[in-house]
Amino acid sequence: MSTPHARSSLRVEAALGLLRGRGERVTRARQAVLEVLDGTDDHLTADEIVHLASARAPGVHRATVYRALATLGDLEIVSHTHIGGSAAVYHLTVSGQHLDPAATGHAHVQCSTCGAVIDIPAELLQPLVAKLSADLDFQLAPRHAALLGTCATCRRSPDYVP
Questions:
Q1: CB of 94 within 8 A of CB of 11?
Q2: Nearest Cα to 97, choosing from 80, 77, 74, 81?
Q3: pTM for this one?
Q4: H/E segment holding residue 86
Q5: φ and ψ of 66, to 5 deg
Q6: Which CATH code fits 1-103?
Q7: In contact, 138 and 132? CB cutoff 8 Å
Q8: Is-contact 65 46, C-beta < 8 A?
């Protein structure tokens, strides 16, 4: 069986380098969380991350994984989004040697019929962000929550009712 370090990708190593560069500890739980998020394109909840991280780092407690997610989020190495009808989901925001603007610069839409979550470029929502700011002095955080709607597949279904 390979060691956790041997399994690490460039993104995980970059994230660990950011932790070290900021004087933060590199713990088994933090590394396991980073490896789990690096290993999927899925939108994982904290509970799913706990399950997968505990397989990578046996003995790491659930609360420790939650603290790791919180710290990595505070350091903007991990980002979370609230998805309608479920818990927040997480993803890694690191690419190469730095924070990845493409990873942090996307928003989400969710199909209220099938539950699919789709990543979209955050700049698609920029006109709405600007309009809300100008008209209502309201600062929208489009990457923090998914917008609900109906995906093309569900709209094409013979059972679809608008």
A1: yes
A2: 77
A3: 0.76
A4: none
A5: -60, -40
A6: 1.10.10.10
A7: yes
A8: yes
Tokens representing residue 159 in the block:
């059972």
With beta carbons less than 8 A apart as the criterion, state whether 63 and 54 touch. no
Name the token pair of 55: 């397989």
Under DSSP, the state recorded for 120 is E
User: Rounded to an integer, what distance in angstroms lies between the CA atom of residue 75 and that of residue 157?
Assistant: 43
Residues 125-157: pLDDT tens digits? 999 999 999 999 999 888 788 899 999 999 999
Characterise 55 by phi-psi region: left (phi > 0), alpha (psi -120 to 50), beta (else): alpha
Of residues 74, 79, 73, 68, the one with CA closest to residue 107: 79
Longest C-alpha distance within the chain, in Å? 58
For the domain made up of 105-162, give the CATH fold.
Dna Ligase; domain 1 (3.30.1490)
Give the start-to-end residue ranges of the domains of the chain. 1-103, 105-162
CA distance 125 to 54: 37
pLDDT in tens, 21-77: 999 999 999 999 999 999 988 889 999 999 999 999 999 999 999 999 999 999 989
Q: Which residue reads 């995980």 in tokens?
A: 12
